[in-house]
Amino acid sequence: MFEAFIVLCALTTGATPASDGPGNACRSALLPGHRASSEAACMAFLGGPLPDWTRQPAIRPSIPFCSDQIPRPLSVSEVAPGVFVHEGKVEEVSPDNAGDIANLGFVIGDTSVAVIDAGSSRQIAEVLYAAIRTVTEKPISHLVLTHMHPDHVMGAAVFREAGATIVGAATLPRALADRAETYNENTRRDMGDRAFLGTTIVMPDRLVEGGMQIDLGRRRLVLQTWPTAHTTNDLTVLDADTGMLFAGDLLFDRHTPSLDGSLIGWLAVLDDMKTLDARRVVPGHGRPLLPFPDALEPEKRYLDTLARDTRAAIAAGSPLSAATKGIAAGERENWRLFDLYNPRNATTAYTELEWE
């Protein structure tokens, strides 16, 4: 099969589209929606306008072309019939990992495919798209975004171009709009110009408030939004056929949880999640398949400890600067990236709980 591509270069480096390679800020970007069995048929699809992001001021694009040299697909595992998951690295975004730090997935029905989360960049989403195409030629009808954080949403444009409706919580657009400039700047800085090329934030097409179901053809996905917890816009996806739950970052495994919403709310949501008719769960970070609801317990223990220690520091009159050094310190050996995330969590928890 042939796909359409365009070589992109960052104008700030002086590189040109003819010099695509690992040593400069150029890369070949995949353009979904032009897939065909021959180069001629693929090229025939390229007559229409290119996506708006190819005209960004900081990008120099080549003339589009078609090739059967598809990029190496993102690695995925079939964790249940028709349910595929990619395991992201438990790391911070860097040029070495190109932003591949979140668990991503897709579910295949009789008539179409739904993708759950889009990764940190266009580049990650392109190779997730390539992975889907190694498994099925069915149309990609939906992309579900579990929450606002860059490692889950920044590749969304790829799936819109592939024909998907982007779905998110009703509170997601405002959260993305408020943070778009910061997310773009920080992600570009952390992964480098080359990996970031072509990345642009897009808003969801369809909003969920409470619950919604998606029919993929004899395959039903149950979407549910939650009160403020990890963020203000958390959403879970349950495959009713297999009992597989995509929890997004409401659940962390091995990776220190990241509090960007409400500690009290998160603890309450974890209790409420136990009532879901799920048998196994895919966390937003960590091992890609865990038993449910048992997998919630380590995170609940950490958050309980965070709350208990924070309340004790407040009751003792400890100032925030001193309190963050000791809050939840007993959990350090249980989590990766602890010294990066726990001080932030302690600060957020202290700010919330001092007003109880």
Quick recap:
This protein is α+β, with helices and mostly antiparallel strands and 356 residues long.
How many alpha or pi helices? Answer: 10
Provide the succession of SSEs.
EEHEEEEEEHEHHEHHEEEEEHEEHHH
What name is given to the CATH topology of the largest domain? Metallo-beta-lactamase, Chain A
User: CATH H level of the largest domain: which superfamily?
Assistant: Ribonuclease Z/Hydroxyacylglutathione hydrolase-like
CATH architecture of the largest domain: 4-Layer Sandwich
Mean pLDDT, rounded to whole units? 94
Tell me the total number of β-strands. 17
Topology:
Elements (H helix, E strand, L loop, with lengths): L1 E9 L15 E11 L2 H6 L14 E3 L3 E3 L9 E4 L2 E4 L17 E5 L4 E4 L5 H14 L4 E5 L5 H4 L2 H6 L3 E5 L2 H20 L1 H4 L9 E3 L2 E5 L4 E6 L9 E5 L4 E9 L10 H11 L6 E6 L4 E2 L4 H20 L4 H4 L14 H16 L3
Explained architecture:
The chain folds into 3 domains: 2-67, no CATH class; 77-294, Metallo-beta-lactamase, Chain A (4-Layer Sandwich), CATH 3.60.15; 302-353. Helices cover 29% and strands 25% of the residues. It is built from 10 helices and 17 strands. The protein has helices at residues 39-44, 122-135, 150-153, 156-161, 172-191, 193-196, 263-273, 296-315, 320-323, 338-353, and strands spanning 2-10, 26-36, 59-61, 65-67, 77-80, 83-86, 104-108, 113-116, 140-144, 165-169, 206-208, 211-215, 220-225, 235-239, 244-252, 280-285, 290-291. The strands form 3 sheets. The protein has a 7-stranded mixed β-sheet. A 6-stranded mixed β-sheet has the order 12-13-14-15-16-17, covered by helices on one side. Strands 1, 2, 3 and 4 form a 4-stranded antiparallel β-sheet that branches. Helix 7 (263-273) links the parallel strand 15 and strand 16 (280-285). Helix 7 packs antiparallel against helix 8 (296-315). The protein is globular. The model is unreliable at 13-23 (pLDDT under 50).
